[in-house]
Here is the input.
Amino acid sequence: MRMSYIGLVMLGLTLLFGMGTGFHLFFRLAYVLALVLVVGFLWARFGLLWVQVHVERRGARAQVGDRLEGRITVRNTGLLPKGWLEARDLSDVPGYSNGMAFSLPSRGFRSWKASTVVRRRGLYRLGPIEVAASDPFGLFHLRQKFLGQQELLVYPATVPVPAFRAASAVLAGEGPVRQRTYAPTPHASSVREYQPTDSLKRIHWPTTARVQRLMVKEFDDGMAGHLWLVLDLHAAVQAGKDIETTEEYLVSAAASIAREYLAANVPVGLIAYGELRYIVRPQRGLGHLVQLMEHLARARAFGETPLAEVIARESAHFTQVSSMVVLTPSWQQEWTLALGELAKRRVRLTAVLADAVSFGGSGDIRVPLGLLDHHGVPTYLVRQGQPLSQALAGPYVAVAPAGLQEAPV
Here is the structure.
């Protein structure tokens, strides 16, 4: 029970005893209690008058691993000093909300910095700021909220994955179709003499040493078609706790692959059935990467549709000029059979498989690994605690029933 309620109860009892006994001491005590309650309420109420709050924050976008910083300033614009104030940021970013108790002199202010490292992707709320004032007796604790709410969208973490290779799409009867491009890509096609406008990063040092003059690499676009990322957000197959989950690892893997291939000027699309159905058609460019990152930041593994059904529903998107990367923790074989049907249509397939057992889940991943190997699908294996850049550096294949053997391609 709040102290103010206790004070009111005591005042009522004192008056009751005074009227019942006629003893003047009870009435005097009642007057004192009433005065204390009135003074306490007015003290706390005036503590919130002439208060201004200002917050400085850096943007409405962040990425996992970024440091989120903000500066909160509380100012007293009145002539009377204010004591027993407390300010609290009501933001729901984990680790960011904090409180500060202080007093303010006449025309004074108090400023401090709130800071935390963002650990998890998603949509968060920044603000408002709540200022509380109390009286010297601790009877009243009044609160007032300042400023509004602001949304903060946290993108998933990305890591460099230069060694990751999605199977390249080919045109029927043509082989890989490549187009020369000035922009650096994962596919170096030839070398030529250095020009003054060339970047030093493009110099091919082995050829330069051999011919005794500066030579630079020329690149091509690589795949003739486009790359689809199919992210499995089926809730029943996920494993792990907090940020160490198959969901977070695979979302980060999808973001890293998208960034790598979009930087290589390859169109990238996304399909994911989570809480919502996400279909983003393949496009190029930095703006498209931002769009993909926003969808991946909001996506949640609350889906009820198994991966095999997702592939079947969206199979019309996958053609002979499509490359497809499936990211899943599922040990069920139905989705591998669905991939087998796509392989017959000459869709180029790659799998990123999270080992659910390493995340505390269940299932035997040797079954999908064996079937993927049978269909000739390169598979990258992700385990809890393993850096993604290492997991995506080379494919894994199951070569014996006794276990798994690493076999970089």
Summary: The radius of gyration is 32 Å.
